[in-house]
Amino acid sequence: MNAILTLCHFCEAHGPRSLFCTFTTDNDEHITEPSKASVQCTGCASLGPETVLKSTDDDGTIYCSRESVPSADVTSFLRQAAIRSITCEVNWSKDGGIVYFSEAQGHVLSFTFQLCDTRARGLKRWFSILVLMKDKMLLLNITPMLSEHMKNIAAELQKLAVAVFDEEQKICSQRALRLRTGRNDFGQSRSLVQLTGNKEIFKLLHSHFSWILKAGARVFSENLYTSQDLLKKISPIIPILESNSSVIESKAKYIPMRVLESMLSNNVFRVMLFCTLTGVNIQMQTNFRDPEEILISFRSLLPEFDSSAKHKKPNTDPCIISEIEHGNFISKWMQTLPVNCPTLMKKIEIAIKNEHFNEAVLRQHVLSLVLQWQGIAQAVKSTMKSSDNKTDSVKLKQTLGVAQYDETLLKYWMDAFCK
User: Fold this and answer.
1) Do 77 and 220 meet the contact criterion of CB atoms below 8 Å apart?
2) 174 CB contacts (<8 Å, ≥6 apart)?
3) Has this prediction a pTM greater than 0.90?
4) Contact at 8 Å (CB) between 12 and 86?
5) On the CB side of 133, how many CA atoms lie within 13 Å of its CA?
6) Residue ranges of the UDENN FLCN/SMCR8-type domain (predicted)?
7) CA-CA distance, 221 to 309, in Å (whole number)?
8) C-alpha angle with apex 316: 315 to 318, nearest 5 degrees?
């Protein structure tokens, strides 16, 4: 996984700072050159500028841990991320990390926690673990997994710090001493080694961070598709682009969207479009036209059904479309269209009305919208499977722009088209 994991802390003399960074590299200079960060006190030091921890995976991937990353731009961004994670992006519910975005510099998952320290103000110090990535969607997809492991690392550090804190309190109660003397000059912040009582604490963090990078790469992998392969995966009924063709070739049974809207009337077309996208059973009664032509054309707006998924149509009243005379269709449905239809349906309607789209471009645009929502459905379903915390999927939906009126479509697509 191409990411940077960083441990940050709040220094009472120098503010929020990055202490320790782990990343993957194939550049030997990253292992040999010294860190450029200027360490100003004991609390802001970790490995030292000359020390680098290195692990090599079986596939040749090098995991490198240092006091700072070699890139000055990334170092500057990590400084900003440290300030943000400790001073304002704090998750008070303690249910997981917080994700925030920067298209220019990178996207960050932040998990903030406290460690006991008899020398600190309030007897506690603020720390945070950050994950910096360029790939927003990948970060969102693996946030539940990352948050869980970041939480475990924080709990392990807190356990070590509590043991040291309790021993020091037995010798001298800092709270009582401060109340009696009014002492408020605590000197420099202490190092993580002193807080945890573990001289190998940074080697332990290197092991944890390296494992997270490796696990993240294994949990989610990227598949490279050509446009033709990807569109065929979504809708195999309609041939998309042949290698020597610049337009979409359609089978005889397929009826273009604009033709369907004109033939059925706008009201009936919208009802069929809504029912198709949300899984309502459609029945057609006509003596003047092959109903299969119309049904196939609407089904082409859906991804390919997942054969391993145990899907079923939502338990709703069927929609009956009748042709009462040649070219005159009516719909019989016990329900009515909602005031706010699903986002995908609205975008398809807008695309149909776009006069700059010819039929070939319109078809490709609609299929790209379908692909987008299939990806959203898969991401939400994967999050619901991997995390028992319902708020994770709620936050993901908010990030992906899923509104309340999209829920019917989303549930049907997760059941029918997602593994």
Assistant:
1) no
2) 118, 119, 123, 168
3) no
4) no
5) 21
6) 42-419
7) 21
8) 125
**Whole-number Å distance between alpha carbons of 97 and 101:** 13
Dist. CA 228–CA 226, nearest whole Å? 5
Cβ atoms of residues 326 and 288 within 8 Å: yes
Token couple for 374:
């299939």
CA dist 358 → 187, 351, 361 (Å): 72, 10, 5
Q: Tokens 């932040």 belong to which residue?
A: 110
Residue of 143, 117, 116, 120 whose CA lies nearest to 130 = 143
Strands 282-285 and 319-325: parallel
Q: Could you tell me if 31 and 39 are in contact, meaning their C-beta atoms sit under 8 angstroms apart?
A: no
DSSP alpha helix (H) spans, 334-403 = 343-353, 359-386, 390-400
Helix axes 291-299, 266-278, angle to 10 degrees: 60
Q: What share of the chain is helix, strand, coil (3-state, %, to 5)?
A: 45, 15, 35
* Residue 284, both tokens: 């057609």
| pLDDT tens figures, 135-192 | 888 888 888 888 888 889 999 999 999 998 888 878 776 666 666 665 655 667 788 8
Q: What are the two backbone dihedrals, phi and then psi, of residue 32, each rounded to the nearest 5 degrees?
A: -100, -35
Provide the sign of the torsion angle of the four alpha carbons 7, 13, 49, 33, taken in this order.
Answer: positive
Tokens 């550049």 correspond to what residue? Answer: 27
- 3-state class (DSSP) for residue 401: coil
CB 210, CB 203: distance < 8 Å: no
CB proximity list for 69: less than 8 A, separation 6 or greater: 4, 21, 23, 75, 78
Query: Along the chain (419 residues), what's the average pLDDT of each consecutive run of 10 residues?
Result: 84 81 78 62 76 82 84 81 79 66 81 85 85 85 85 91 86 68 66 88 90 78 49 45 36 76 90 92 81 86 67 72 83 90 94 90 90 89 83 87 92 87
Q: How far apart, in whole angstroms, are the C-alpha atoms of residue 354 and residue 368? A: 16
What sections of 56-173 are H helices per DSSP?
72-87, 136-171
Cβ contact 27:69 at 8 Å: no
Beta sheet of 107-116, edge-to-edge order: 53-56, 62-66, 15-25, 4-11, 124-133, 107-116, 98-100
What residues pair up with 21 in beta bridges, in sequence order? 6, 66
In 3D space, the residue among 161, 167, 174, 162 whose CA is nearest the CA of residue 118 turns out to be: 174
